[in-house]
Structures are given as C-alpha cells and as structure tokens.
Amino acid sequence: MNIVLIQTTCSNKDEAKKIAKALVEEKLAACVQLSEIESFYSWNNEFCCDNETLLSIKTTKENFEKIKSKIKELHSYDLPEIIQLDITNASKEYLKFIGDNTI
Fold it and tell me: What CATH code would you report for 3-100?
C-alpha cells in the first residue's frame, strides 16, 4: 500500500471543513488536518499575501485522482493547489490506520 499526503489550501475555514468532511465521509482520506497559514505568492503578475487554511490529507496513492476531482468540485479557487507527497517512512500502526480507513 502506498501512503501519501495530499495538500491543498482554502480561502476560509468553512470551505476547508466542507472538503475535509467529504473526503473522510467518503473514505477517500483517513484523516485531514486543518492549519491556519499565511501565504505569499504571485497571481496574475501581482504580489499577494492571504490568510488561508491548509489541508493535510492522509490517504493512499490510489485515491489521488478521486481526491483531486472532489477538491475541484468543492473548491472556490480557479486553480487550487493539489499536490501529493509520498510518505516514505511511518509507523506500521499508522499506516494500518490509513489503510483501514480508506477505500
């Protein structure tokens, strides 16, 4: 089983909670953590600084495409961040938790 971390950001906590809830209820993710962050970036050739909510989504590599589709369906951004990071090392117990709680 290939366990991954998927990250996305939302403009507000309500949207982040809606996405997190959908992913866990549909068993696409075992766990989603929300963190308040400040993002600095360039958009349309302008400097931007915004408060956002970061979602850290624990899941299997096999669920990436379904999660990407769900995020795009529920997200308000024109171009949401959707990145996958491979988890190369974790406790067997935590890996089992993720496997047991995802489809």
Answer: 3.30.70.120
